[in-house]
Amino acid sequence: MSATNSNATAFAHWFRQCTPYIHAHRGRTFVIAFGGEALDDPALPALVHDIALLHGLGIRLVLVHGARPQIERRLAERGAELHYVGGLRITDDQALSCVKEAAGSARVELEALLSMGLANSPMAGVRIPVASGNFTIARPIGVLDGVDYQHTGKVRRIDREALRAALDAGAVALMPPIGYSPTGEVFNLAAADVARAAAVALAADKLIFLAEGDGVTDAGGRPASNLLAGDVDALLAEHSAPEELAQALRAGADACRSGIRRVHLIPRRRDGALLQELFTRDGAGTLISDRPFEELRPARIDDIPGIRALLEPLEQAGVLVPRPREDLEEVIDRFRVTERDGTVVSCAALFCWPGEQTGELACVAVHPDYRTRGRGDRLLAHMEALARERGLTRLFVLTTQSAHWFRERGFEPAGVDDLPPARRAAYNARRSSKVYIKRLIGTEP
User: Fold this and answer.
1) CB atoms < 10 A from the CB of 368, how many?
2) Whole-model pTM?
């Protein structure tokens, strides 16, 4: 195969893998928030190109931008600075003037980038209307513990009807970190608070924070793929985090508790991370949700296509005995599956002989893309715990090609005569499967 054909095949495969997400996202509402650092980055046009692509795919977009670096730069030019007390900034008259200037300048710059239509660029032929305005109604924080926060405010509500009207008209809505009161005052707001409030008001399908730095990482320094909303407070209590990241995490967790199913925290500086997060199964950042993104659970009838997709390659290779769909339907209650973003990525079945206190572990399969980070071990541990719950003291497997994997996990060689009588009678001598048995820890000998 020529290099050209190989590249074309790879591109076609990649595009096909994206297709389910393209269909799923069309017509959905996403709120995307990013800090003022993005506005100073020479790579900002690339981010705008990706945003334009999302708009072109039929996604309804609300963009919430910060302006902290721009505000601080203007204050420094005037010999002043923002003051913080307890993590909250105090916005005096001079700071508010800088907030207005920075927000106005940011709006113009973003509108200009979204208006590009140069030939031979990703924006060629693009026409994106942009709507901005007084979508955010705010109130003052007031005086806390004797400190007057002056023009620093909190979101009171979002003008949902006006915002929806802009999105219905096909516009990208642009929301700055400022709000307005019914008395005509202007308040300096946290962009994360504005993004959260907008997402909740619109019942958005996704709230996305483009974070500075690496975002949330696991013990190995890799981006943490999943985080439950209920764990955010404990995480922030145990680990220090930059204030804007902490604000995004708190706002994201609060949004989840208010009905937003998925909040994404993505490293902004990684080129293409926004697209990778939205159009691939594993994404590029951290998903915050009220329920696990990857769930190990009992199988259902509608999981059978996913189970078949895992088992068929192994059946064709002679690793597993073929199980037609009809057979799976009859024993689906014996299966456990790991579901990741709607896709079955692993499965196993437990068949019990209570009289012999023995169970068979069968149909163990993990998707090739997910045979890392101990998924097979977690699945095995789950099945062993299930066997113990059912009063079993021994677990056996029949295998032709996976003996070493099971041996490394405590299964010992045995013979056909060690099988329960009913299973021994059904043993297929032509396959010559090896028998391995493991005594379950925590059960009586």
Assistant:
1) 9
2) 0.72
